[in-house]
Automatic annotation (TrEMBL):
It holds the Pfam family HpcH_HpaI. This is HpcH/HpaI aldolase/citrate lyase family protein. InterPro entries: Aldolase/citrate-lyase_domain, HpcH-HpaI_aldolase, Pyrv/PenolPyrv_kinase-like_dom, Pyrv_kinase-like_dom_sf. It comes from Aquamicrobium segne. Residues 19-242 form the HpcH/HpaI aldolase/citrate lyase domain. The lineage of its organism: Bacteria, Pseudomonadati, Pseudomonadota, Alphaproteobacteria, Hyphomicrobiales. It comes from the Bacteria. It catalyses: D-glyceraldehyde + pyruvate = 2-dehydro-3-deoxy-L-galactonate.
Amino acid sequence: MKERTNTLKAALQQGRPSIGLWCSLASALTTEIMAGSGAGWLLIDGEHSPNDLRSVIAQLQVIAAFPCEGAVRLPSDDSVLIKQFMDAGARSLMIPNVKTAEQARAIVSAMSYAPEGVRGFSVGHRANQFGRIADYHRNARANQLLAVQIECETGVANAREIAAVEGVDVLFVGPGDMSTNMNAMGNPNAGHVQQAIAAVHEAAVAAGKASGILAPVKADADRYLRDGFTMVAVGADLGLLARGSDNLVASFSA
């Protein structure tokens, strides 16, 4: 048995944009609905959503029936969490609030088996189809993707060094935290925040890496795509349900 190709990683390596959606409701059923949308990837959020290991596994299982990649955002860069979720089948990871190249190297190490890294070894788990994928451990890194989130001025200042770390695939801007940390809460389009976002993109390009961002407003997403961002999230299940139900009920109001 062979491991399924990571189509998101392949697209980004070829410089092709890939549109994604956020999954925040911790429901395999809603994630299954999102997976049928035609999105190139879905991000299962474990930082700001009530997801745990079991709910993430259930969502990865339903995503696998569709031609899109299931990525998982962990709540932190904890190496134990990285090991557990990778063994559970999360091979595309997003790690929040990465500030330094040293931190990025530690994350890559946590994702990698010895001698390159410190990922704990288990003969059979969900990631290698319970022992059915031949040479999984030797070749595991080939289908892994790491997106590190740049969300503060320190991360921006170190973006070029972070992007240069082997094993980092994407510099992904967190516009909410970025604007908050730069004293412009809720306004990622503030001039100085936009300059920081552009600097992250330029750092990624200089290192031959992809850049990504969450942009639920279509005009913003279109602009970032024109600027060369390729891993672009354009909405979330929570927002789509909330705004859709709001708009529907409002359409019947006097």
